[in-house]
Amino acid sequence: MHLTTGEARDLAIGALKRLAFSDEDAAITADHLVGAATRGVTFGSLPRILAIKERIDEFGDRRRPIRISHETEQSAQVDGGDNVGYVVAHRVAQIAVEKAKRHGMAIVGANNTYYTGIFAHYIEMATRENLIAMAAGNGPAMTAPFGAREARLGTNPIAWGFPTTTDPIIWDIGTSTIMQGELMMHARLGEEIAEGIALDNAGRPTRDPTAALRGAILTWGGHRGSGLSIVVQLLGILCDTPAIPVGMQEMGFLYLAVDPALLMPVDRFKARATELAQAIRSAKPAEGAGPVRVPFDGSVATRRRTLEEGIELPDRVYQSLVALRDGA
To answer: What is the predicted pLDDT for the residue at 59?
Structure first.
């Protein structure tokens, strides 16, 4: 199904309001999901609304107001109140950016949340204000540590962002070979996954996404990716979460914002970051490879194109969202 971004946003808001989202929370979540779609991240876009519904059906609607449970000039601990992470992380990023602009740097953590989405979305909130930012989040056991065949770690995304004189440099990755949302979309569409990225619950390699959801995803990069995943899990614990959250709940989100002016003039940092990016892009590509890029170049190009051309949504997902919106 081909949709304009406006049509996609209206559909998302309508479906979310059927799930008892307030007007503000529905708009925040819809903007995030449509933003993911414009970057070509289909699994992290509108299909997530169906996963939110399934999560509410599983655990019940336990939402309570988001609140700051502890705060200093440069930090805050946020109780997410079992609200979806799109809303909680948006608030966390707002708090961190405001504090970093006043005091030079800030660290803000949130717990009691789930489904935080594309971390680059929150990182851009800082880079637009000429801040450097880092975000990390843990989750339930879905990924096997290196050398294991049982899940003990979350998919554990981490992102860094740096302002430049043009588009920001943002590195946003999951530490697993495939993200949970992508597995769920493959399962919803009846599609197999690639070889060598997941195990079933007996520890055998599988291409069945449903079997992988019951088993374990592998970390990327062997022991290096596994080590980074452990670090992210620990950063999530710093937000006062369980060591390994059980189910899609009690997950953590940590956000750090830093003003380059603490160490050097902001304009000088941005100029040198731009110089580095241009030096990397100007490198001769390897034989048979395309142009050399820095992180986020692809997302920026895709977003510019899809904002003009619209986005594609799997027919089955579109029909399910229309049925949800219409109460069918």
So the answer is: 92
How far is C-alpha 234 from the geometric centre of its chain's CA atoms?
17
Instruction: Provide CB contacts within 8 A for 314, sequence distance 6+.
Output: 1, 42, 47, 185, 189
pTM of the model: 0.94
Q: How far apart are CA 5 and CA 116, in angstroms?
A: 21
Query: Per-residue pLDDT tens for 284-302?
Result: 999 988 899 999 999 999 9
Pair 117, 159: CB distance under 8 Å:
no
**Which residues lie below 8 Å from residue 221, measured CB to CB, with a gap of 6+?**
228
CB 12 within 8 A of CB 49: yes
